[in-house]
Specification:
The chain is an alpha/beta fold and about 325 residues long. Helices cover about 35% and strands about 20% of the residues.
């Protein structure tokens, strides 16, 4: 496993970051022991970096994994809190439920523009105070927009940026993959630690995973790449790819047997753009939310490319 120093921080992270969203209740909902053991196995195989968030509701998995793990695990988490007290509560919740005196990286979650960054100023101020006290080691921001990557690159308050990046640009709200890549290069040259997310487009690029992984692994400005992992087969396959090895045929066959499904996140606004894109009438709008008919869905992922809020994923 390759390791890189995360920008100007004192953290050295594995090139492959364990994306923990997939193991928790919002997606695969693995039993606690199973999810924690998967993190521990990843750690034994060289992954020392885990990405989570308060919203994912999976701190208990990480707490148990930390108790079992033989090697250091660097934790990055994030919160939607926008007030000073709200962010303080989020940080204290993370410390308590993860079971660490400090959190390595704490971020503003999914910022959309310069205006939302300004609107989260109180929360950011708390994170900066917490960093001074040693409660957190680095301050960051996650985003699906080019604008925030560029804005955060110019803000000394931020040590780390987590941008959405994949070769098709699925989920980027305000530009193309090339636009985001240029912004990432700009932030990298400003000394920011950068770890990408959604390189598989929320699962929608799984059928093109070789190209998807090749694209992000050839970006020199990404110190690490968070990949959602929910099974041992996915873990082994991802490690093989990141270490430049061929995925064993038996692992590929097991991955093909894994049942996948399309999910629509609860922040769906019911705009209907996904229904217009779907060729199989598998998605409909009921009330103010999209719903999928699994008997019609072929998991092509075309609907996700039409969703402006990145609500649609394949797990």
């Amino acid at each position: 496993m390759e390791y890189r120093k995360l920008g100007s921080t004192n953290l050295t992270v594995s090139r492959l970051c364990f994306g923990a969203l997939t193991i928790g209740p919002l997606q695969a909902n693995l039993p606690l022991d199973e999810g924690a053991n998967l993190i521990c196995e990843a750690n034994e195989l060289g992954i020392n970096f885990v990405d989570t968030a308060e919203y994912y509701q999976n701190y208990s998995y990480i707490n148990l994994a930390l108790k079992k793990a033989k090697n250091e695990i660097i934790i990055a988490t994030k919160s939607y809190a926008y007030t000073y007290e709200g962010m303080k509560n989020s940080v204290e919740k993370a410390r308590k439920e993860i079971g660490k005196d400090y959190i390595d990286i704490f971020m503003l979650h999914e910022q959309e523009s310069k205006l939302t960054l300004e609107g989260h100023k109180e929360a950011l101020n708390y994170l900066l105070e917490a960093k001074e006290k040693g409660i957190i080691k680095a301050v960051g921001v996650s985003t699906h927009t080019v604008e925030v990557v560029r804005a955060a690159a110019d803000m000394p308050e931020f040590d780390v940026i987590q941008p959405l990046i994949n070769f098709k640009g699925i989920g980027i709200k305000d530009g193309t993959a090339d636009d985001m890549l240029n912004a990432i290069e700009y932030a990298y040259n400003k000394g920011k630690g950068i770890y990408g997310m959604k390189c598989l487009g929320g699962g929608n690029l799984i059928k093109e995973k070789e190209r998807a992984f090749e694209y992000v692994l050839n970006i020199p400005y990404l110190h690490s790449i968070a990949v959602g992992i929910k099974s041992r087969y996915e873990l082994i396959a991802d490690i093989c790819i990141f270490e430049g090895n061929k995925v064993p045929l038996e692992i590929e066959n097991m991955l093909l047997k894994e049942k996948r499904k399309l999910i629509i996140e609860n922040w769906c606004e019911g705009c209907g753009k996904c229904t217009e894109r779907c060729r199989y009438s598998a998605i409909s709008i009921k009330g103010e939310k999209a719903y999928v008919d699994e008997t019609k869905c072929i998991l092509c992922g075309y609907c996700a490319g039409a969703c402006p809020e990145f609500c649609i994923k394949i797990i």
